[in-house]
Design goal:
single chain; alpha/beta; Rossmann fold; six-stranded mixed sheet; 24% helix
């Protein structure tokens, strides 16, 4: 797949916007065009961009949320929608996505976005983002361009569900990565959405996890490796679900070696075993399992 530079990206013909509407597909020529009114309009829709964010409405009291992989600020808006008191620290290394997320964060005094990503070591690396019709498909950005090639992890979804026969090129930009433990944050929740690099982020947060035992939410990429890594900190995996009475719940989710990703939900929650009763009793969360609780 052909790789293009910033100059080529900015010289592309105006987008015809025929690709499907999806939060995170952006026009790089208007990356900072988000207004406060647009943010408030989304906020007033009362429906987070992903339903599992509803579970965070129970964590009231100004808890600190680490938003690793902020993209265009979707998580900031969704968190503020369900939890207005949330203190949000977001990390987004991509220049165009950061420009939008930063405009979103300015609406909320309790939110801040940093223009770098988190990983297991500090470095500068290229990252690759699909481009269709001059538009950046930022939610599919990846450090490994082979992810978009045939047999790659994102190829089928990109080509069949997004491009649908349109030409696709990759935009390459250099990003900065840092270890999360450098910042001495005291998070109550860590949300990680970094397209397959979740385990690296967690490895760079070992001290933070060991000290503060936050609730952790990651995409299902490498779920077996993540579950094994977090088990050393006495964490158990859970999945979000909505009960027949309309209440949100977290249900224990056994993850075993050899389990296929098709059998897993898109996002997985990990709870420290010593905090399960706290979530139940102090915050009123509905948590089903694990067996020893």
């Amino acid at each position: 797949m052909r790789i293009i530079t910033t100059d080529e990206l900015m010289k592309a013909a105006p987008a015809t916007h025929y690709i499907k509407s999806w939060s995170g597909i952006i026009d790089p020529k208007d990356a900072a065009g988000v207004t406060a009114n647009a943010v408030w309009s989304q906020l007033n829709q009362k429906e987070p961009h992903e339903p599992h964010f509803k579970i965070f409405d129970r964590l009231t009291g100004g808890q600190v949320f680490m938003d690793v992989g902020a993209n265009c600020g979707q998580s900031i808006i969704s968190l503020k929608m369900v939890n207005p008191e949330a203190q949000i620290r977001s990390f987004e290394p991509g220049a165009f996505s950061f420009a939008i997320a930063n405009r979103v964060a300015r609406v909320f005094p309790e939110a801040q976005v940093f223009n770098f990503g988190l990983s297991d070591q500090s470095s500068r690396l290229p990252i690759f983002t699909p481009v269709i019709d001059g538009l950046l498909v930022t939610p599919l950005s990846a450090l490994d361009p082979s992810a978009f090639e045939p047999n790659g992890t994102m190829h089928k979804f990109l080509m069949d569900d997004i491009a649908k026969g349109a030409d696709v090129v990759l935009f390459s930009q250099e990003i900065e990565l840092r270890r999360g433990d450098e910042f001495s944050l005291s998070p109550d929740v860590v949300k990680i959405d970094v397209e397959g690099a979740e385990l690296r982020v967690l490895a760079g947060l070992e001290e933070t996890i060991g000290m503060h035992r936050p609730m952790i939410m990651t995409e299902k990429s490498d779920a077996i490796g993540i579950a094994r890594f977090l088990s050393d900190f006495d964490y158990e995996p859970f999945q979000y679900r909505e009960e027949p009475d309309g209440r949100c719940a977290l249900a224990h989710l056994p993850i075993v070696d050899g389990m296929k990703s098709d059998h897993l939900p898109l996002n997985i929650f990990y709870l420290n075993s010593e905090k399960v009763d706290l979530y139940r009793d102090e915050y009123g969360m509905r948590i089903i399992g694990p067996a020893n609780h």
